[in-house]
Structures are given as structure tokens and as C-alpha cells.
Amino acid sequence: MKRRKFITTSLKGGLAISLASHYSFVSFQEKYTRNQLIGKDESSIVGNSYTTKMHKETAEAFDKMKAAAAKENISIELVSAYRSFDRQKQIFEKKYKRFTTQGLSPIDAIRKIIEYSTIPGTSRHHWGTDIDIIDANVPRPKNVLEPQHFHGNGPFCKLKDWLNIHAESFGFFEVYTDNPNRKGFKYEPWHFSYALVSKPMLQEYKKLDIKQILQEEKIEGSMYFTDEFIHQYRIENILDINKKLL
Question: 128, CA 20 to 30 Å: which among 44, 120, 164, 201?
Fold first, then answer.
């Protein structure tokens, strides 16, 4: 084997072993509590505002990705990162009251909400690993988080093209892809997750009794969260995501 080929092969092998070891180390070391997983414990969160709070490891990786994008004249701006249980509860219950007041039945209101918004206690943003991002170097449309802004002639096309090529090398993966066979939440080209932390957190989250938690937290409308509804929500909204994040 030629020296250059040997070195390249060795480096790739070493990287694979390193990443595998890191995943194993994280999974072995971290024992996430119920409150961490549902956004009621910020002990691993750094940052001091709605658009800067993240899991400490996510924040380090994000800073590296942001710096790399800046070299291409792309200014990655956080629209949303860590979101507490209470904040998600406010969002959910405000929509629930509005839709039921407009005449929707409680379950239809809930189904309308979960087209884009998560039920409190079930959001990936509770983990501090997931981010919603745009490019601050282009004119900002009125509603920034719209899929059309990231494709065609949209203002965030350059950002999306860059992320398609580079995001995974920093550990970030698109969560709700445009796979036509995917169910659950609609396509979100702005939503990325830091896999080195979110994957082991998802494994721990899957062990929780979601229905019991939602009833314990007295979320408005939780009386309509039947076993059948929770089963479908778990399969479609929590687990039907980018396969690389499972």
C-alpha cells in the first residue's frame, strides 16, 4: 500500500473509531433526568437569552459552524434554540384556546397545532440540541421560517446550500426532512440538531411515559390525549425524523 493511501485510510479509520467511541462515551456517561428531557432542568444549558441558550456541547459545535459559514459571507443567526417546558406550554395553550374559540373541536385543534408546533414536554428544543437558523446577511422576510425562503430564489438559499454540504461535518443534521414518505411535523429546512447529544437524549426520552407526563403537568387539552393519539404522535411526530438522528 502506498504511503499516502495508507495514511488516508488510517485517518478515516481513526476518525470512525473516535466518533463511535464518543457516541458510546456519551451514551454511557449521560443519565438524563425526566426534567432535563422535558425542558424543566437547565443544568446543561449555557447562554443567557432565548436565541443563545443551548446545550453546552451544542453551543461549542455551533460556534465552529458559524465561524466556518462566515468565511463564505453567511452569517448564521439563531431564531430559536433551547425552549423551556413553560415556554412551549404557553405557545401550545395559546394556540389551543384560539382554535377552540374559533370553533374547532379540542382534538381537531390539537391536530392543527401539531402540524408545526410540538406538545409541551415533547419538543426537541427542550434538550438544547436543536436550532432554528437563518442568514442574517440577507434581507429578512416578514415570516422568516417559511420553507419557500430556503429554496428557489428565496433569501436563505445560499445558507441552505451551504448547510447541505457542510452541516453534517459539524455534527448538525436536518430533523424534519422533505422526504415525501415522512409523516408528523411538516418540512422544516431551518431546523437542525446536534446529533452527538440529541441521539443519546432521544434514546433516554423514548423510555418516558409521555401520556403520564402530559397529564401530570396539567396541559390544557391533555384529557384528549388518548392511548391511540399518543401512540400515533410518538411514531409520527417524535420518531419519524431524519434517520441519521435515530
Answer: 164
For residue 191, the surrounding DSSP H or E stretch is strand 191-194
Instruction: Please indicate, yes or no, whether residues 88 and 186 belong to a single structural domain of this protein.
Output: yes
Q: Which residues contact 132 (CB under 8 A, 6 or more apart)?
A: 78, 79, 80, 81, 145, 188, 190, 191
Query: Contact at 8 Å (CB) between 128 and 198?
Result: no
Taking the mean position of all CA atoms in its chain, how far away is CA 76?
Answer: 16
Identify the band that residue 51 occupies on the pLDDT scale cut at 50, 70 and 90. Answer: confident
2/43 same-domain check: no
Cβ 194 vs Cβ 200: under 8 Å: no
| Same domain (yes/no): 62, 181 | yes
Per-residue confidence band for 30, with pLDDT thresholds at 50, 70 and 90: low
Could you tell me the residue range of the domain that residue 11 belongs to? 1-30
CB 44 within 8 A of CB 55: yes
16/40 same-domain check = no
Note whether 132 and 11 are same-domain residues: no
